[in-house]
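Re: the request from the purification team.
They wanted to know what the chain is likely to look like in 3D before they choose a buffer screen. I agreed to run a prediction and write the result into the notebook, where they can find it.
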Amino acid sequence: MINVNNTLTGNDSFTMVDDIVLRMYTLLDGFTVETAGLYAYLKSWRQNDPDHKFYNCVWLAREEIYAQTSIGRKPFDRHLKALKDCGLVTIERGRLREVNKQLIRRKQSDDRG
């Protein structure tokens, strides 16, 4: 049985998104509430163990993200580009047969998760 009180990426089960992402970033061209939602979703899947080699990375396959979020490829790419352009996410391309990793940027005020 799945323990819904624990994330699969660490011991905490709480994802925090700064108010500025919801209130100010959404004023930028191309950045919508859906973009902020994708950011929160990616943060919920990031590796949050500082000793782990993929700390702050999300390594889910895009197909898995599409299935879980019901976001298609083009909208996903558009939202991911907006997150990248704002500096909230960087993308590391995986080698052949490896999935891409989305690295969640942490702000100084974002030390709690």
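For the purification team: The chain has one domain: 19-106.
Please add any questions underneath this entry.
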